[in-house]
Amino acid sequence: MANTSTDPHDELPPAMDYKMHEATYQGFMAFTKYSIIVLAFVVLALYCFIEAQQALLGVVLLLAGPVVVLAMVVMGRQQG
What we know:
Layout: H1 18-50, H2 55-79
Helix pairs in contact: 1-2
């Protein structure tokens, strides 16, 4: 008697889409890189606010973080 199972769990999964996997990984790494840069600016700004008593420098650093990341993203798109 032939073994003809119609159980959907017996089928092999489709092949992995490596191109999509690489694109997702690159997006995750870019997000991580830019997040670390922004967090470094936030830490420096908090230091300026709390320890150094330099509120103006803290505000400048808080505003500079997103601007620097945006500039990096725009320049990265122009190069690629």
